[in-house]
Amino acid sequence: MAVSNGPTGRRGANSQRGHATRRSSNNGRGATTPRKSASRHGTQKHRKSANRHDPTRTLEKEMLAELAATGTHTAATVNPPSVQTRVRANSDGTQTQANTNPAGSKARGPILAGVDEVGRGAIAGPVCVGIALVDETVPDTFPPGLRDSKMLSEKAREGLYSAVRAWPLAVEVGYASAATVDSLGIIGALRAAAADALAKLAARGYTPDAVLLDGTHNWWTTEPDALLEIGPILPAIPVRTVRKADADCAVVAAASIVAKVERDHVMVALAEQYPGYDWASNKGYGSAGHGAALSSLGVSPQHRVSWHLPGVRRNQHERN
To answer: Where is this region: Disordered (predicted)?
Structure first.
């Protein structure tokens, strides 16, 4: 199975640390600026239009078949897919869960993990990694309306949440705090969040045999020749990166919706603890109101102080 590697050492981590917002370098100068702007706008319109289709399970099934044919999956017994688990996201990033059906066990075939991240570009709150698992027993028919979480309204995501959570073999969300983002960089924090989600899955008896990762950068795989690795070392299993996998692959879309909904709940709870930043609305991203609140209230313990924070001078980047 093809494994796509990316920069995961200190240099790779640092390149991802900084800025939650991008600034134009042209500032309207030069004849090429309008053409570049139009090109970018056109590309975004094309992508948005292209992402309105429903995801499929084609790539998932190809990867599962390849794992089964090569015999590379880990032999294990797990709770059957009929066991449903209700999960509530807590304000501190932890979760409370309880099985609603009696536990059992059965031998299984290979398990594929669909992985997506949420909150990477936020300036406050945790970064999250959703991991949804599928195997040959998961129904081909997924919940109607399932698609990339970014293409859905908050109301639509909330309406789909229960059905999407019940569809895969299992799904969990891992969290890495703002302080972890500051200490490890975004790549290390993504690994920490993924390790958190994997630990929750392992506690339920599930271990994936391969990963389908949204995006083009493989932050999961440890570089064998890296001088310094950042964050936890994740399982050395095959990883395939796919651009827009959250739009095209059902298992990744499921991971993206569950992670987005649960992180939103965390930010709403944090908004009650730290009023004034309007996190219930902006979810920790750098809105104009968020920047104004930073100017007047200063930096909270939930802000990523290593990032560019609007309305805050660099020498004021200390948590209250």
So the answer is: 1-57, 71-109
169-182: b (≥16 Cβ within 10 Å) or e: bbbbbbbbbbbbbb
Reduced to 3 states, what is the DSSP secondary structure of residue 281? helix
Distance of CA 265 to the CA centre of its chain: 15
The span from the CA of 184 to the CA of 228, in Å, is 12
Answer yes or no: is 116 a known binding residue. yes
pLDDT, one tens digit per residue, over 54-81 is 899 999 999 999 999 987 666 444 444 4
Q: 86, 72 in Cβ contact below 8 A?
A: no
Interatomic CA distance for residues 216 and 197, integer angstroms = 21
Question: 92 a known binding residue?
Answer: no
The pairing of strands 106-107 and 77-78 is antiparallel
* pLDDT tens, position by position, 151-198: 999 999 999 999 999 999 999 999 999 999 999 999 999 999 999 999
Contact 294, 312 (CB under 8 A): yes
- Phi-psi region at 68: left, alpha or beta (left = phi > 0; alpha = psi -120 to 50): alpha
Banded pLDDT at 49 (limits 50, 70, 90): very low
Structure tokens that stand for 157 in this block = 């995501």
Q: Which of 304, 317, 310 is nearest to 17 (CA)?
A: 304
Higher pLDDT residue, 45 or 224? 224
Q: Where are the domains of the chain?
A: 48-76+107-271, 273-316
- 3-class state of residue 69 by DSSP: helix
In CATH, the number for domain 48-76+107-271 is 3.30.420.10
Q: Was 248 annotated as part of a binding site?
A: no
| Positions of E strands within 45-197 | 77-78, 85-89, 95-99, 106-107, 112-118, 127-134, 170-176
